[in-house]
Each structure stands twice: as C-alpha cells, then as structure tokens.
C-alpha cells in the first residue's frame, strides 16, 4: 500500500473502511473501502485525525484485511452458520438456526497462535438462537502476508470436524419414569414430571409417556422397557439417585444390561447424575436437584445428546471446570460461568 497526504488524495480510492467517532453521536465507518475521495471529504478526514490515507500498491504476496477475514471465516465455518459482509476488516458469524455451538478448542488455539490472526468465539456447547452472534474473525494488520492465511486454511483442514458449527436439536420421543414410593402411592404430588416435561418440550422434543414407579427395581425396569417398546429414544428416570439403600434407581438402570457411562458428575447441582446407554438409547438417572434448581447437570448434557452426540465418561469429567452453578437469585444462564 502507498501512503498519501490527505490534501493530495482527491481521486484516490480507499482500500479500507475509515471509522469516525463523535461521542454520543456516531461511531462507525464514515468512508467505506472503495470510496473515491472528493474535495469535500478533505476537511472531514482531517477532523477525523487523518493526515494520510493509504492506497493499494499491489505488493505481491499481501492481501487486504477484508479478504483475509473472509477467508478465515469461511475456513472455520461448518454447518449452521451465516457470514456477514466485511466491515472494517471484520467478519461476524451468526447462527443460521437454534441449536448448540460446537467449537474446536484446539483449532481455535492453533489459529490464534498464528501471527496477526484473530478468531473470537462463544464457549463450546453454548446454546444459541437463530441470528445470535457466535464468532468473529479479523486480522491485525491492514495488509497481511497471504502465507499466514494459507497456514490457517491448512490448520483447519487437519481437523475431521469443522472448527465451528451450530448443530440443531433433534426432535426425540422421550419417556419419563418418576420413582419414589411416596409419589407412586399418592402420598405426595409428583413435582418432578412437570419440570422434566417443560424442559423436554422447550428443547423441541415430546414426552410420549410418563409413568410412576415405587422403589422397586423390577417395576422401574419394566416401565423403562415399556417406554422403549413405545418408541422412546431417550429415557429420563427421576429420583432415587443417592447412596441411600432405599434409593434403587441406579441399580435398576445398571441391571438392564446397559453400558454405564458414569454414576456421578463433577457438577453442582447434579453430582449424583447417572448416564447409561441401552444400545443407542440414552438413559439418564436424575437427582432431586433437577426438580428444584433452575439449572443443573441435566441442562448441560441433555441438549448435547439431543444433537445426536453420544457422550463419554471423559465428556462428563470435563464438565468439572465451570461445573459450579452460583445459583443466582435471577438466573441468567447461559450468560454466566456455568458449564463454561
């Protein structure tokens, strides 16, 4: 690029957006890339503190910040993302639909380790709505060596999954088994079922059956099997998850020949959470906190399974960092530290 005095710039073509800031009035691009400078622009440019402007000098091997940001945005983007037009060398990525943002933490680290590259994103597994801003790309210099962008493209190509994508939640058929002799015999009203139903429906899935079971292993198991025979693709078993001998939900789930992923999670509230699979059907044992706490381990893991992800023990263990809910009087999840 070539540096020219503002007073000598009439007829020159700007190669970058130029921002004007007037406190309380405006902050944004006053002149866009490609603008041909006019005589009346000179005093405006000077009032913006510009003594010089830069024009493209076509130096081989250098590319403009807008092109670099756009190439970065495209190379990190998987499905479910929309890219806006470059503005002052930045590209914003937004969600094309509701879902969860999946981001490669290692990929983001590798890209940002490149000199001059910027990729800022929301946290991995962040729930988003259509139109939400999820990431932004840019480069630091106005002009950058194309080799840097080629290196970024090469890095992204080494990952089997996109660096970023928004995965929609599947619409599953869900079965609920509420355990506890006190509920089964009608001594107290079931408060667990309505909470679970509301969450499931809010995620776009449907409860096909809700059953009550006493603290009896065989009854819990028969209810689970019945719901699977009805087409349930996910089973939620509430209550009876402590180490108290009377709490038999874990024994019932394990006794069905399931693949046990975990009994216990480094999340508060939700430490006594259980996850197992019967074939491809996830079965979750949900502790009592899910009934009365606004957000728990259930809110962190269920949406991921609704995208089709099969969780491992390592996935659950990783929840420990950020797994402490502060249980604020006014819940702002996901705009908080929980699950991050």
Name the descriptors.
340 residues; alpha+beta; Molybdopterin biosynthesis moea protein, domain 2; Aldehyde Oxidoreductase, domain 3; Molybdenum Cofactor Biosythetic Enzyme, Chain A; six-stranded mixed beta sheet; four-stranded antiparallel beta sheet; elongated; molybdenum; magnesium; metal-binding; metal ion binding
Apparent shape:
elongated
> How many E strands?
19
Helix content: 25-40%
Strands of the largest sheet, in order across it?
15-14-16-19-18-17
Structural class: alpha+beta
As residue ranges, the low-confidence spans are none
Q: What's the name of the CATH homologous superfamily of the largest domain?
A: MoaB/Mog-like domain
Which architecture of the largest domain would the CATH scheme give at its second level? 3-Layer(aba) Sandwich
Short description:
InterPro entries: MoaB/Mog-like_dom_sf, MoaB/Mog_dom, MoeA-like. With about 350 residues, this protein is α+β, with helices and mostly antiparallel strands.
Could you please describe the fold and organization of this structure?
- InterPro entries: MoaB/Mog-like_dom_sf, MoaB/Mog_dom, MoeA-like.
- Catalyzes the insertion of molybdate into adenylated molybdopterin with the concomitant release of AMP.
- Residues 175-307 form the MoaB/Mog domain.
- By secondary structure, the protein is an alpha+beta fold.
- Helix 2 packs parallel to helix 4.
- It has helices at residues 41-47, 65-76, 105-112, 146-157, 181-184, 192-202, 217-229, 249-254, 289-292, 297-306, 313-317; strands spanning 2-5, 18-22, 26-31, 52-55, 62-64, 81-83, 90-95, 99-103, 117-121, 126-128, 133-139, 143-145, 164-167, 173-179, 206-213, 234-238, 259-263, 274-278, 281-286.
- It is elongated, with a radius of gyration of 27 Å.
- Strands 15-14-16-19-18-17 form a six-stranded mixed sheet, with helices on both faces.
- It has eleven helices and 19 strands.
- The longest helix has 13 residues, at 217-229.
- It folds into three domains: 2-55, Molybdopterin biosynthesis moea protein, domain 2, CATH 3.90.105.10; 62-167, Aldehyde Oxidoreductase, domain 3, CATH 3.90.1170; 173-320, Molybdenum Cofactor Biosythetic Enzyme, Chain A, CATH 3.40.980.
- It is 27% helix and 28% strand.
- It starts with a strand and ends in a 23-residue tail after the last helix.
